[in-house]
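Teaching assistant here, posting this on the class forum so everyone can see the example we discussed in section. The complex has three components, and the goal was to see what a joint structure prediction looks like when all of them are supplied at once.
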Amino acid sequence: MALRAALRGLLSCSSHGRLCASSTSFSQRNNSSSANLKVDHDQTTGVAVMHMQSPPVNSLSLDFLTEICITLEKLEMDKGCRGLIITSSQPKVFSAGLDILEMYGKSPERCGEFWKAVQEMWLKLYGSNMVTIAAINGSSPAGGCLMSMTCDYRIMADNPRYSIGLNETMLGIVAPFWFKETMVNTVGHRNTEISLELGLLYKPAEALNIGLVDQLVPEDQVLSAATQTMTKWLAIPEHARQITKSMMRKSTIEKLRSNREADIQNFVNFITKESIQKSLRMYMEMLKQKKA
Amino acid sequence: MALRAALRGLLSCSSHGRLCASSTSFSQRNNSSSANLKVDHDQTTGVAVMHMQSPPVNSLSLDFLTEICITLEKLEMDKGCRGLIITSSQPKVFSAGLDILEMYGKSPERCGEFWKAVQEMWLKLYGSNMVTIAAINGSSPAGGCLMSMTCDYRIMADNPRYSIGLNETMLGIVAPFWFKETMVNTVGHRNTEISLELGLLYKPAEALNIGLVDQLVPEDQVLSAATQTMTKWLAIPEHARQITKSMMRKSTIEKLRSNREADIQNFVNFITKESIQKSLRMYMEMLKQKKA
Amino acid sequence: MALRAALRGLLSCSSHGRLCASSTSFSQRNNSSSANLKVDHDQTTGVAVMHMQSPPVNSLSLDFLTEICITLEKLEMDKGCRGLIITSSQPKVFSAGLDILEMYGKSPERCGEFWKAVQEMWLKLYGSNMVTIAAINGSSPAGGCLMSMTCDYRIMADNPRYSIGLNETMLGIVAPFWFKETMVNTVGHRNTEISLELGLLYKPAEALNIGLVDQLVPEDQVLSAATQTMTKWLAIPEHARQITKSMMRKSTIEKLRSNREADIQNFVNFITKESIQKSLRMYMEMLKQKKA
């Protein structure tokens, strides 16, 4: 049922790939746009809003991940940017997660390169010195959920058609240890265990209940609520907040940092297995049939 | 009060030691029975139901533990068995836990052999590749609670006369670190701390509230609810589920596996102490008086 | 807002520094009094009540910490003392936490001495063999919250004007790893993360909700509720309870014990920084203005 719900969510999105990216630029704003990201950086408030606009469902391909990482790097280095809100310009979806096409029928080298980019995004987001808020205005399975969990705070649209969760197991693949630890740090060990074993996707109300998101608001208020919350967070003494955040997360970050190469090998060995490739093929065929 | 409740539960059981083990056998079933275990293995569904029927209260003696371990080993090796439901054929009790008679007045060697069997059962259950569901149709103190916690999912009879918990402290003994870690993984650190320090037994509603069990159902529906849940779990891609389960539990399992001998020594030294033997004697006398 | 609430709480206290320490002495009581502590030790029940009476707000100065440590040491050694209740004789405040005056404009040596006393108090309380109950009859920010969290059980006055939490970040300083771990052990990782990053102070109802306190009672019943709870805890087999408590806490305790010197250096280097001293000065000026 979780699977069907996930498919429904994803497919309903891919039918219309239009962008809502009408960017309003004021003089004090420093807006950069790449193909799939629109960044509104308000220099007055020190807050950047990163709109993901990679049609149809913000799947995290190698290219898109690379764009995201470059943008994060720039914002992190920019002293004028103290807060980051991540949201989606695509209708009904925040991000559909890792792009399956990057894992199917690819060479081990390419798979490794892809995985390194996934690691890089996680390291940049989970370890960011900025205040990071996920404005989850649509479904957020797998890698989309991971991105959300790296943030300091999660606000989700209160629409029961959306869902969020690490549902990798339903695709026959396995969330790596650092996905797992990010989730344990968010919702505890038992919720993570049952969630990952069953590949659960949670409706917004359920997600709030287990602490997977922090707040639900009506769909049209997700971004404004994120902006309001950001103001509160930016009022906190910055240096102390940053050291505290680092203290809470450094052991998890350190574990991946000191095992990146092994983690890549692990992923490549697993994903290139005949049986896993077959699982992914079946999953994609199911997606196509749903679409037709 | 917890103690009195536990005694009441246990004693009310031991007064009638009859078995409800009327086994219905169909051609597609592979039913094995040993003295104290009845296993219904449905080859069609791949689900085995293990009925504990060691009168009066399914106390985990060395013999009974050995039977359980042999049965678990067989089922684990059997490719046709993918799911295991553990339940009780004894009225009003799931399992009363470790058999006190195995800890009282026994030689250190015998105590060590007993403890090794407890470890073995835990290792087999907590690390099982099968989907394991506890159908808790009666009280489940101490070792009974441990067995339940090793499972992937816990369904308990919604009868306020039943209780569940690691109440070792009330007997003057101490839950070892791997009991503790299993509980921390289930209900978190603080619930475990207060629970173990006070030797708490929880009513079903309280157990549900802290996450010690996952679901309450009317008493006569425990097994059918477990069967329904099992169907959902078996629909999950198996290999990914197994790897995920192992990822969640392996650090806890590894900690015992690499410390078995020391853990046995620890237990034997503790349990054979004069003061602890006296505690156990007093506890047993209290049980007898209650009975009379 | 949290900050303002904290200030309001603290300032309203400092305006009247009177003591409520009218000690009633019976023959079976062994009451010791130092300048800022009144200890009622009931030899019959084995319970000592430690009243903090350091005006105006029980700030933990080096002198006061030293008094507390000496008292704890004595009680711990006294076989006749099995339970300790910690409460406040000051109106509206349990303890305002670490004394800022000990961190402002002091030599590195003095800062180090101060921090060593903070460590010592935590080590003594978190590792105590006694049953420890915090009778939180007023606001309990920062170090006051830490003291509360070291106890086995926390009962708070159900008065929405009081609050509790580790709000160090709001002062521009950082809770060290052992404050953090004590909180994670109490309310879990995510609650701790958001709580420490924002320097949150919780109203009693919120504190109960996240598990930061265990029970709320009307303000005039805090001490009697603590006494009742103590009776239940003292009925638990003592040796087993102590070993269990130690098992739950020893890894956290060990981490500080084996890093005391580095932790002191860390604190001294941080607190003597120009920028941190400036933060503290601004905070104290804000306190003064509020007062005036």
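For the discussion questions: The two ends of chain B are 20 Å apart (CA to CA). The interface with chain C takes residues 168-175, 177, 180, 188-190, 192-194, 196-199, 275, 279 of chain B (CB under 8 Å). Think about how each of these relates to the inputs above.
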